[in-house]
Amino acid sequence: MHRFTRRTLVALAAVLGLATVVPTFAADPVKIRISTPAVESDWHAKMLTVFKDALEESAPGEFDVEIHLNGTLFKQGTEPVAMQRGNLEMAMISAQDIANQIPAWSVFTAGYLVRDPAHQIAVFDGEIGQEFFGMVEQDMGIKILTAAYLGTRQLNLRVEKDVQTPADLAGVKLRMPGSDTWLFLGEALGANPLPVAFGEIYTALQTGAIDGQDNPLPTVRAAKFYEVTKQIVLTGHLVDGIFLSMANNTWAALTDEQKEKVMAAAKAARDFNNENRIADEAALVGFLEEQGLTVTTPDVEAFRSTVQKAYLESDWSASWPAGIVDRINAVE
Ligand code: KDO
Prior knowledge:
CATH class: Alpha Beta
Strand content: 15-25%
Order of helices and strands: HEHEHEHHHEEHEHEHEHHEHHH
Largest sheet: 9 strands, mixed
Radius of gyration: 23 Å
CATH topology: D-Maltodextrin-Binding Protein, domain 2
CATH architecture: 3-Layer(aba) Sandwich
Bound molecules: 3-deoxy-alpha-D-manno-oct-2-ulopyranosonic acid
């Protein structure tokens, strides 16, 4: 068998009068596995396909993006550590996940601080975002590519109840994700918070293990919680974000050009999510009423003042950088 080396191929090409185009072997594509508990029809799951497609278009064959939904690859909340240990390349992580390691981040887990989606985008796309993303890069070894709007969290109850103020939630078993900042939010709302993973909410509602859960309305629809609940209480208690992130090691191994393309893809994905989710939130009250749910508006000011007071008097706020609440409030 004749062994074709690059040199023999070049020589052969010269003899045959061919242009010396010698096949080179393209580098293996960069493997990127993304893990999230999100369900397929939710916007922050769909935005991952936008990310993948955008990269496929701008850098054909350079990336091999695998999307893992429903918490099947890593359980909800374990993704940051998986990225830190080199077991995962990308995830959508929450401010609450980050606050487990950087308590200053708990400022973004506080109810009634970020005002609305536009405010959230302005905060994270500006100076404050740069500072807080920098902490995550430095202290956790995770690069946040972009902040996406997860939605405004509302209460969703299994049985109808007259809820006007936090006092009306006394004794209500409210499911929260399983970390301290989440449980604190449940308490601040006046409820009795119980930690349950996202993937178990539906059954817990169905069986009555919990009395309610809180999530943005697009998620109530996507995860079909409306099938096992009777009421939405429009508390609007947390304008929530979700952060598309990459392990620093994965990021550092990219070329400058690839980094630019990854950032552009993340931005396209974020814009897709935000646009659709914001439009959806406005339309979903009607959908949920059609499904037979009662949608009520409580005394939001009573919730706001109780929740804000709980945070300001808590140990969480002691870890917030000086002046951050005023700075966030001042962002237009
Ligand atoms: C949830 O468990 O309620 C939550 O909304 C918390 C978010 O931080 C995020 O993990 C989200 O679930 C999942 O992406 C599922 O939508």
